[in-house]
Amino acid sequence: MNYYSPDDSHLKRRSQRFVRRMFIMRQLGTMLCFFPILSVLMERDRGLAFSALLFVNAFLWPWLAYQRALRAEDSTATERHNLTLDAAFGGIWVALMALSPLPSFVIMAVLASDRYAAGGAAQLIAAMQAFLCAFVLVWLVDGAGVDLAFSTRTVWLSLPLATCYMLVLSVTSYNLTWQLRKRNRELERIALMDPGLGIPNRRLFERRLESEFLSTRRGDSAGYLLLIDLDYFKSVNDTWGHEAGDFLLAEISSLLRNHVGLQDIPARFGGDELGVIVHHASDESVVALAQRLQEKIAQVRLPASAEFRCSVSIGIASAAHAESIRHWLRHADEALYEVKRAGRNGVRLWQPSLAGAA
Ligand SMILES: Nc1nc2c(ncn2[C@@H]2O[C@H](COP(=O)(O)OP(=O)(O)OP(=O)(O)O)[C@@H](O)[C@H]2O)c(=O)[nH]1
């Protein structure tokens, strides 16, 4: 089962948003088309019946299409069908205008860009087919007239359609892109943060590790890596339960967030192991920072036990001594191993003499 696929209610909400957006665009489009088409129909003396039909298409059809899509089992598919019907109606009006060039081309441009924005190439092709079928049919039945003259009034009445509609379409498309970008950023944040601890996860940590390593290599900073491992954490779980273990990890993470420098990055390295990338430090200052963290962590208490004392082992390595990120990580691990080996609850800075310790 794919746990990440959207559920039915989510899909329904998304469909309804699409239908509402299309309703607004359709209302605006048909209203702006109404005036230039009416102008041409009047110039060609098409009679009241066509004007009435145009009125229905411009002002009633958007409501009918909206209700039809909203009530449908599959709103998105019905709305796509509505979009194709719009194109067919467009073809009918272009035929009845005897291809009057200005309104016809503006209507075709609006239909094409709108269909493409709503449903990509598939929607555009379906719309073009519907447009051409309706156009050819009505045009032939209507006597295949071609009237290339148009009045100044028709020109003026076509301008709002050519300008306003395109502007609204661009704004709508931009807003959608912006929302998508915002959602992507949120998804990326979720993918790179540890949900329980509110600090970066190992994936983000490794990315930052790389940029810190390169920055140290360039001489822009002096990066250090702290690997922090909780001592006897298994016994915390065994004695006070997994929830107490989670609580402890969360307390220590929030403590790291609050006590490392603004440019330093705390993260969950995995399991009960945490890490901090220190952006710029010296051997003395980084050891002092690790000891301060150790003291703070020792003050953390479990709600279930006042006697409980927490201790951590911290291995430190400088990026300057490493040839690669892998080496840097290994050095920190070797330093941590040394602390564990020496009885835990300590801080150790990697030195070349420790190479191969772990
Ligand atoms: N509560 C809780 N426990 C976790 C989590 N992740 C890992 N653990 C537990 O952390 C324990 C780590 O155990 P070990 O690697 O043996 O380490 P330790 O008991 O701390 O022993 P030393 O590191 O040698 O001092 C395991 O029992 C894991 O189940 C977590 O997110 N929450």
What does this entry look like structurally?
The protein has ten helices and five strands, in the order ααααααβααββαβαβ. It is elongated and about 100 Å long. Helix 7 (233-240) crosses helix 8 (242-259). Strand 4 (312-318), helix 10 and strand 5 (347-349) form a beta-alpha-beta unit. With 358 residues, it is an alpha+beta fold. 67% of the residues lie in helices and 8% in strands. The protein has a five-stranded mixed β-sheet. The protein folds into two domains: 8-190, no CATH class; 202-354, Alpha-Beta Plaits, CATH 3.30.70. The structure holds guanosine-5'-triphosphate. The site of guanosine-5'-triphosphate has 15 residues, from strand 1, helix 7 and helix 8.
Write the layout of secondary structure elements.
Elements: H1 8-43, H2 48-71, H3 75-96, H4 101-141, H5 152-192, H6 202-218, E1 224-230, H7 233-240, H8 242-259, E2 265-270, E3 273-278, H9 283-298, E4 312-318, H10 325-341, E5 347-349
Parallel strand pairs: 4-5
Antiparallel strand pairs: 1-3, 1-4, 2-3
Bound molecules: guanosine-5'-triphosphate (GTP).
